């Protein structure tokens, strides 16, 4: 690098640094009031969230007890078959094996039903809570005049309408991809 090109580089870097320092106050002013909220924590720690968790736990425990009873019956029948198979007549053995298969199918069906029921119960209890929590957070954003609220775990949960370009994006997308 020649002396002249080093001098130009040094002057250029100096100008960039001065411009950067001058831009800091402008960036600081543009920040506004930006806050974060942990929506998951808020939903699990509020009273309604704790009630929903307790209800889901109660339902799960009840159904798990049913599954445990059926599982115990299956284990008992399986043990009986293994221990007494040499002493059983073939028709009795076939009948017991059929009973075991039938109980195992009942267990699998019960397990699937429990999953579906608990999933539906969770949706029924959590969706209204989520909706109300989001409405509340947005109301707080308006009341406190926040410029931006972000979920600590995922993304933006409130932004003033003036900063929301969703409709513009939809219009541009529709125009481009008729």
From TrEMBL:
Coiled-coil boundaries: 46-80
InterPro entries tied to this protein: Chaperone_Skp, Skp_dom_sf
GO biological-process terms attached to the record: protein stabilization
GO cellular component: cytosol
Any one Gene Ontology molecular-function term assigned to this protein's record: unfolded protein binding
Pfam families in the cross-refs: OmpH
Signal peptide start and end residues: 1-30
Gene3D superfamilies: Skp domain
The keyword Membrane belongs to this UniProt entry's keyword annotation: no
Entries under SMART domains matching the protein: OmpH
Alphabetic keyword roster: Coiled coil, Signal
Family: Belongs to the Skp family.
Protein name as it appears in the record: Outer membrane chaperone Skp (OmpH)
Phylogenetic placement of the source organism: Bacteria, Pseudomonadati, Thermodesulfobacteriota, Desulfarculia, Desulfarculales
